Amino acid sequence: MTADEDPARVLAALARLSLSRIDAPWTLRVAGYIQRKRRLLHFVNYHRDEAKGASIPGPAGECPLPATNVAVAVRLPRSARVRGVRLLSPDMDAPLDLASEFARGILRFRLPAFEVYAVADVQLG
Questions:
Q1: Which of 37, 61, 74, 93 would bridge with 53, disulfide CB 3.0–4.6 Å?
Q2: Cα–chain-centroid distance for residue 64?
Q3: What is this structure's pTM?
Q4: First vs last Cα of the chain: how many Å apart?
Q5: How far apart are CA 36 and CA 13, in angstroms?
Q6: Pairwise pLDDT comparison (20 vs 64), residue with the higher score
Q7: Mean of the per-residue pLDDT values of the chain
């Protein structure tokens, strides 16, 4: 393996680029969308209790295990004005306003527990 192929060196080089980052298990997938005056992040959690679900037929056998305490760092233009971050999920009765911090072009926030699906609506002004 050459120095360019060393995973630790590659990850360190990527970290210096200040890219968006989601700290979560590999079973959580994220897609981002740019819309006028907002950014949408769609989170789909594929983490399941497969042993429990194996004996249950149909959709009830999905047996999702919640994603918890997911840390999100989203790169935005440094000139962006973030008005807020709102989380929507079928697991919640109403949208939830999340605490967030925006500095040097990176918006940081954490997601509370959710089972399968959530959308973070980053509202820009």
A1: 61
A2: 17
A3: 0.80
A4: 48
A5: 32
A6: 20
A7: 87
